[in-house]
Specification:
heterotrimer; A alpha/beta; B mainly alpha; C mainly alpha; A: Rossmann fold; Rossmann fold; 3 domains; 6-stranded mixed β-sheet; 18 helices; B: mainly alpha; two-stranded antiparallel ribbon; 73% helix; 3% strand; globular; ABC transporter permease (chain B)
Chain lengths: 504, 324, 322
């Protein structure tokens, strides 16, 4: 390990419409070290790494690589300079083989022909960093690999491209215990090779296990830069920077929780088995579990997107095994989807039209789109106001709003339908801290007014902070229930099925 | 901040955002008048409007499918089927006019329904589905007429496209086709811009997945768009029947003209944005261009070349404008 | 994270399955109708030979679809190429080579313009190639209105000649398909085509010049279409401005590619699937002849069959995606 940093970012600032994503951020990593980058969703970690990898240009500040100025104008430039990022969304071609993916864009040729044998051997050599038993055959199409294996292919490809700086964006989010352990070994190996690793994570246990340095981002600023790994509590304090009690609204008082509204008994489909639980009026019920445990699948099953094929679901005592979202909405169960842009918004349409889409969907087709009684436009404006939506012009396309305000548009859409059950999937993904707090407050207000609220999130502190009760899922089943105030370790132990998992 | 703030600059920017197609149309009409002063006479411009009417209706219908995110390539053969089928059914029997028109509208509805169901439920890309319908429908026209249409269209049937009231106060002449255009255009405009359906259609074309999760009956909305397009093709066919003879290629090429006109008017391909008024402007512009080419003495096939170039440049310009 | 592997392998309708099903239907229908002479090798070869034009066009179409583009100008280009070939040849053997060169040049220009309009002007490929089709068809109709020119007898052996008992045209189709398949499977360019169609951003990140790949794919597609024009000129003895449109090569080349398992969204599929699709279409045609379906009814059935075949696929692949 040398003292000079391999890369250094100084005084980086970056703004997007409606949000200052980064201000005066400095960050560096040396050869052979693992630098943990932590912070809440929306703290600016991904933006910082997108600047490092040439996707965005910073508004202010500069970078150096090996002591020389470095200002990549394109991701390709950063990549050929030796910077590689393993995003959570992989950039592999699912229909191509491992060998083809590993050599994408620089296949070995003999004459005019691809040298398939060299590709296979190159793939084996590239995968050799993982030692024996990774089970990845070069001839397999990538779609047949597990998520962990796909991630290994991404890492192998980055190394094969000569990456000296490797950024890993929450690499363990979708991995089980054994796969995590294998990944840690891989990271140890990278460190030994002299790679500078930037490791983005939420999990304190991983920081203790892997990192040599920690930088904490909060609201786009560095709130702590530590050359050692401090106790977890210190990192969390730097991440949140305020009393958790202030950040999350207070829980439901005992008298506020009413009778069950939605009851699920022995329900299941291709991804879920033996699901039984109740959602109660006035209560926020959180669903925790590792990626792929079935949390989102459960939400989608309730909402009729991938319906249950067996079991009994009732909403206020009435049959509620919905076959389509439309049936669910009509019956008073609504869902805030996890991918705001892909599933939630009509980006070209106005803020107002996005808010009114559901009321219109249940009004007569030939009705006037902006006059009561069919559609109540003043009503939606009141809802926007009540939710403190910040929009300059309600007739402007919804894509011009910030993420938090976009989320409020979807909430307003649903409130106009006066739902009895609200399902929130990843409600604060990619929105800033203040917007998060106001979304939490909105959720609590909804519960207080008698709705049953269900929260599904991969952000465990969020689930724990906002819920009155937490149900834990693993491998498509409900495996346990904890009350508010349980520790993250307890929940993770249930979620992974290993009592000794991650400690906070 | 609410939308009540700052009303004046918004009105100004609205004014600046007037669709450039109207400007282009004005310039073209100016050029036509310069070349042919007779155009300012009722005979001149009313004839122009009469000839533009079928394409206007067709383009306004096509906008519905384009806004939903699809294409409807079957309208040309639907026009042909309307003309050929009507001549077969009428069989020179004046009394049959009304029920034949109804029957043709019914046939159009069925064609649209089939298109819509194949696209929305079987998930066949609309391009393939409507090309398939195009082949099938023109095949039906061929089968029905045995390759050579018999009979001719009765005067009653042809009145919609051909008849003109003379000595009308103020405007002098009034073609029936213009009334059909105004009526049809108004209905389509209302459906697109004055109903819940129009807003839902925009939502579906913009993001079908989000629309479905918002409770929108996506399949119903899409199917209806294809039905509207096919019905507008039948109306266009009835108008065309008024001034062209009965042949098996009456409708040939109209599907592309309709798409070109809609795109000229600023309709977004692959869905989410479309305006009926602008499509009417696009159709009038396209007709004006053809008229101009006629006056310049350019042969018929050159029209097709020009149309192709216009189509490409209109889309290229739209891409530039969106990115700017 | 989106790319979770599906937990179970589901039943998947592949091009092979459809080909086998079509073959079974074909054989049963022929046996049922008692016209067993249609199962003789000579008749089978004849049946396949009638699909050569569609086959060559479809090879090119498959390549552009694989990189998530599409070409609706092939029919117009086929007509233009056939007319150009027969006019330049004008019945004289010495003009064969210049005519072929002229036609190939035409194909390259059209492909290049298609590719440039799509990549540089970023015009939707459907519209770009539709516009190109109108331009070609318009120019062609302005110049000729009927069969024009004549190909020399020697050139007609492109269609009628045989080598070792096999029709030259069928061998040629085999070579074109094998060549295209070799390009797709064995060259860096082929690998880039799959990458561009599969995930254009990933391809760009891997340093692939995606614009060049798309342009080259359109170049190949247009070349295939102009070769089809040459073949049809040889077959008909002359070129006419409607032969491409009448053959419905736009729709049918797309349809056989999709039936053969090439996904319209790009990145998945291959030439041999498309050839299976072509064989299926050849069988359908032959079946119509055997059963004596009249020409107009044939057209009605054809449109329906194309849509049904694509629908069968769409339903099959939906299960795969869902």
């Amino acid at each position: 390990m040398t003292d000079a940093p391999m890369f250094e970012m100084r005084g980086i600032a970056k703004a997007f419409p409606g949000v200052q994503a980064l201000s005066d951020v400095s960050f560096a990593a040396r050869s052979g070290e693992v630098h943990a980058l932590v912070g809440e969703n929306g703290a600016g970690k991904s933006t910082l790494m997108r600047i490092l990898s040439g996707v965005y240009k910073p508004d202010a500040g500069g970078m150096t690589l090996d002591g020389r100025p470095f200002a990549p104008s394109h991701p390709l430039e950063a990549r050929s300079a030796g910077i590689a990022v393993i995003w959570q969304e992989f950039s592999l071609l699912p229909d191509r083989t491992v060998a083809e993916n590993l050599h994408l864009g620089r296949e070995p040729v003999r004459g005019w022909r691809l040298d398939r044998r060299a590709m296979r051997e190159g793939a084996r050599a590239a995968l050799a960093v993982f030692g024996e038993g990774h089970g990845i055959a070069p001839e397999l199409p990538v779609r047949d690999l597990s998520v962990a294996q796909q991630q290994m292919v991404e890492i192998a490809r980055a190394l094969a491209y000569g990456a000296r700086v490797l950024v890993m964006d929450e690499p363990t989010a979708a991995l089980d215990e054994a796969e995590c352990e294998r990944l840690f070994t891989v990271v140890d190996g990278l460190r030994a090779r002299g790679t500078a690793v930037v490791y983005i994570t939420h999990r304190m246990g991983e920081i203790a296990r892997l990192a040599t340095r920690v930088t904490v981002l909060k609201d786009g600023r560095v709130s702590a830069a530590l050359s050692h790994v401090p106790p977890a509590g210190e990192v969390i304090a730097a991440m949140v920077g305020r009393d958790l009690g202030q950040f999350f609204p207070p829980p439901a008082a005992p008298g506020e929780i009413g009778p069950p509204v939605l009851s699920v008994r022995h329900a299941g489909n291709a991804q879920l088995r033996g699901i039984s639980f109740d959602l109660r009026a006035g209560e926020i019920t959180g669903f925790a579990g590792i990626q792929g445990a079935g949390r989102t699948a459960l939400a989608m099953a309730l909402f009729g997107v991938d319906p249950f094929t067996v079991g009994e679901v009732t909403l206020s005592g009435v049959f509620a095994r919905f076959a389509s979202p439309r049936e669910a909405v009509r019956a008073g169960l609504v869902l805030l989807p996890g991918h705001r842009k892909a599933q939630g918004l009509m980006l070209m349409q106005s803020v107002r039209d996005n808010g009114l889409v559901s009321p219109r969907a249940f009004a007569p087709l030939a009705g006037n789109p902006s006059r009561p009684p069919a559609v109540d436009t003043t009503g939606i404006e009141e809802l926007f106001r009540a939710l403190d939506l910040r929009a300059g012009d309600l007739d402007a396309p919804v894509r011009t709003l910030s993420g938090g305000n976009q989320q409020k548009v979807i909430v307003a859409r649903w409130l106009a339908m006066t739902p009895r059950v609200l399902v929130f999937v990843e409600p604060t993904r990619g929105i800033d801290v203040n917007a998060k707090a106001s979304i939490y407050t909105i959720m609590r207000d909804l519960a207080r007014r008698g709705s049953a609220v269900m929260v599904v999130s991969s952000d465990l502190p969020e689930v724990m902070g906002v819920s009155d009760r937490i149900l834990v899922m693993r491998e498509g089943r409900l495996v346990g229930e904890t009350a508010r105030g349980a520790s993250e370790a307890e929940v993770m132990a249930l979620a992974t099925g290993h009592a000794e998992e991650v400690a906070v | 901040m609410t939308d009540a703030a700052l009303p004046r600059p918004r009105r100004l920017s609205r004014l600046l955002r007037v669709n450039p197609i109207w400007l282009v149309l004005l310039i073209l009409i100016g050029a036509i008048v310069a070349l042919n002063p007779d155009f300012t006479e009722p005979q001149g411009y009313m004839n122009f409007l009469r000839r533009a009417a079928p394409l206007c209706i067709l383009a306004a219908g096509q906008v519905f499918v384009l806004t939903s995110g699809g294409f409807d390539l079957s309208v040309g053969s639907t026009i042909t089927l309307t003309v050929v089928g009507a001549s077969m059914l009428l069989y020179n029997n004046e009394a049959a006019t009304w029920w034949v028109i109804l029957a043709m509208l019914g046939a159009g509805g069925v064609i649209g329904l089939v298109n819509g169901l194949v696209v929305a439920l079987l998930r066949v890309p609309s391009l393939i589905a409507t090309l398939g319908t195009m082949i099938t429908v023109s095949g039906i026209g061929l089968m029905w007429s045995g390759g050579a249409p018999r009979g001719y269209l009765t005067d009653g049937f042809r009145a919609a496209g051909r008849f003109m009231w003379r000595d009308v106060p103020v405007i002098g002449l009034l073609p029936a086709a213009l009334l059909v255009l105004i009526g049809g255009g108004a209905v389509l405009w209302w459906l697109m811009h004055g109903t819940n359906y129009g807003r839902l259609l925009h939502a579906v074309g913009d993001n079908p997945e989000a629309a479905r999760l918002a409770g929108v009956p996506v399949a119903r909305v899409r199917v209806l768009a294809f039905v509207v397009s096919s019905l507008s093709a039948v109306v266009a066919g009835i108008l065309l029947g008024g001034f062209s003879g009965v042949s098996l290629d009456v409708g040939t090429g109209y599907e592309l003209q309709a798409i070109t006109a809609a795109v000229l008017g600023g309709t977004q391909l692959l869905g989410g944005r479309g305006a009926v008024g602008a499509a009417l402007g696009g159709a009038l512009t396209l007709t004006a261009i053809f008229t101009l080419l006629n006056f310049l003495g350019l042969p018929q096939p050159v029209r097709e070349v020009v149309q192709g170039l216009i189509l490409i440049s209109a889309v290229a310009l739209a891409v530039c404008r969106r990115d700017a | 994270m989106t790319s979770l592997p599906s937990p179970r392998r589901r039943l998947r309708i592949g091009p092979g399955t459809i080909l086998l099903a079509a073959l079974a239907v074909y054989v049963i229908a022929i046996l049922w109708s008692g016209n067993t002479q249609f199962l003789r090798p000579g008749n089978i070869l004849g049946m396949l030979t009638r699909a050569v034009a569609l086959g060559i066009t479809a090879v090119g179409q498959t390549i552009v679809i694989l990189c998530a583009s599409i070409d609706l100008s092939v029919a117009a280009l086929i007509s233009a190429s056939a007319v150009l070939a027969s006019v330049v040849m004008g019945g004289s053997t010495t003009m064969i080579v210049p005519a072929i060169l002229a036609v190939l040049l035409l194909g390259m220009v059209v492909g290049l313009v298609n590719g440039l309009v799509i990549t540089r002007l970023r015009v939707n490929p459907l519209i770009a190639t539709l516009g190109m089709a109108m331009v070609i068809q318009g120019i062609l109709s302005a110049v000729v209105s009927n069969f024009a020119g004549e190909v020399p007898r020697s050139f007609r052996s492109f269609d009628s000649g045989t080598v070792l008992g096999l029709p030259v045209s069928l061998i040629f189709l085999g070579l074109v398909a094998a060549g295209a398949s070799a390009i797709l499977n064995w060259t860096r360019f082929g690998s880039n085509i799959y990458a561009v169609g599969g995930n254009i951003d990933a391809a760009r990140l891997a340093g692939i010049r995606t614009d060049r790949v798309i342009i080259a794919a359109h170049l190949l597609c247009s070349l295939c279409a102009s070769v089809t024009g040459l073949y049809l000129a040889a077959r008909l003895g002359s070129g006419a401005p409607w032969i491409g449109r009448d053959g419905m090569y736009d729709l049918e080349s797309i349809a056989v590619a999709v039936i053969g398992g090439t996904v319209l969204a790009g990145g998945r599929g291959g030439i041999w699937g498309t050839m299976a699709g072509v064989a299926i279409f050849a069988m359908i045609d032959s079946l119509f002849n055997v059963l004596g379906v009249d020409a107009f009814a044939k057209q009605v059935l054809r449109g329906g069959i194309i849509v049904a075949a694509v629908a069968a696929y769409a339903i099959g692949s939906r299960r795969l995606v869902a």
